Amino acid sequence: MQHLFDSSGDWLGFRIGKNVYNSDGDWVAWLPWEDDDVVTTDGDYLGTITNGNRLYHFSDKPRRGYPGYPGYPGYPGYPSYPGYEGYASLPLGARDVTMPRPK
Q1: What are the 4-fold beta flower domain coordinates in residue numbering (predicted)?
Q2: Residue among 76, 46, 74 at smallest CA distance from 61
């Protein structure tokens, strides 16, 4: 399990394999390619995992096309709160991600 944080050090959610969950344990995104780009379950770019555990949205990312739908991975269980990670400056062209909630 990889916990994900914003630039303020606030916990956004977590990643298990290619699947990304919000802090409530809801599956909201995934990593369809062999890199750190994250897309929502609808196929929209959400952000990129950088510095090991930060999830940022980069406005200059080119559209890569619809990655398909991977199928629902199931409920991973509720993870324990990992605590505060500490501040990290935003990279150039990046903003913090707001994690989606299920529809």
Answers
A1: 3-53
A2: 46
